[in-house]
Amino acid sequence: MPLHYEVHGPADGEAVLLSSGLGGSAAFWQPQLGALVEAGHRVIAYDQRGTGRSPAALNAGYAIADMARDVVQILDATSTPRCHLVGHALGGLVGLQLALDEPSRVASLVLVNAWSKPNPHSARCFDARLALLDACGPRAYVEAQPIFLYPAAWCAEHAQRVADEVDHAFAHFPGEANMRARIGALRAFDVDARLGDITMPSLVAAAMDDALVPWTCSQRLADGLHDVTLHFMPHGGHAHSVTEAGAFNRSLLDFLTRVSAPGVLA
Questions:
Q1: Could you tell me the pTM of the whole model?
Q2: Domain annotation for the chain: domains and CATH numbers
Q3: What is the SS3 assignment for 198?
Q4: Most buried residue, 10, 17, 137, 257, by most Cβ within 10 Å?
Q5: Is Zinc-finger found in the keyword set (predicted)?
Q6: What is the SS3 string spanning 16-37?
Q7: How far apart are CA 83 and CA 158, in angstroms?
């Protein structure tokens, strides 16, 4: 079944493909869409396979490499030879995998609260989330989701928005089997020994108060990749591209402007 994707902005703009985290939805990038289009980029966002408007039954062996092949499918469908790939968490893993498998399709990488190998803290978080799903079902699982995404003060200040997001996530829950398959894929991902093979420019962005993925994972990416811009924010949580969208967007656009300059990607 074809994947749902959206294309925004001028047809002749440099392509930026947005790949979401575990939720998989193109809507996650709404805080970035306007800024990217206004800057002249052609923006591609999509619902990942087995989520949202891209329904599919995922098998138990589903892997990040499968998700990277889906991105190639979208690039081909949109006649996009290569793109700047912006990935949040799981979406960042997809970007790393694509950079290894199809480097000619990736002009640059933006890795937001991503990682190169498993770590014990995130594993504990996913164990707890899966236990909640097993014992209490999807509603309890999505009720807990904001705890991992956002800082506590932000959740309290935006209580209605958070409640609406929880209701939407429950109404569009991809199914327990798909969720387990997606979590299994990200937990199995490990390209740490291959980071040195990735040579395109990369922006590694992280919030130091991320409750799900330690900021040290982003430091590890920066240490292992070749051409890196590292941007740490003290606050913002796992979804700091949402909670601190202004600061994140400035860093993103500055990076894209630099790597898009004549001669940089020649």
A1: 0.96
A2: 5-260 (3.40.50.1820)
A3: coil
A4: 17
A5: no
A6: EEEECCCCCCHHHHHHHHHHHH
A7: 34
Give the list of residues 6+ apart from residue 210 with CB closer than 8 angstroms, or none.
Answer: 113, 237, 238, 240
User: Nearest CA to 181 among 239, 126, 263?
Assistant: 126
C-alpha to C-alpha distance for 257 and 266, rounded to whole angstroms: 15
CA distance 219 to 191: 15
Count of other CB atoms within 10 angstroms of residue 193: 10
Whose CA is closest to 169, among 59, 28, 5, 54?
A: 28
Q: What is the pLDDT along the chain (266 residues), one digit of tens a residue?
A: 689 999 999 999 999 999 999 999 999 999 999 999 999 999 999 999 999 999 999 988 999 999 999 999 999 999 999 999 999 999 999 999 999 999 999 999 999 999 999 999 999 999 999 999 999 999 999 999 999 999 999 999 999 999 999 999 999 999 999 999 999 999 999 999 999 999 999 999 999 999 999 999 999 999 999 999 999 999 999 999 999 999 999 999 999 999 996 654 43
Nearest to 236 by CA among 223, 254, 218, 224: 218
Name the pairing type of β-strands 106-112 and 83-88: parallel
DSSP 104: G
Contact indicator for 49, 71 with CB cutoff of 8 Å: no
* SS3 assignment, position 116: coil
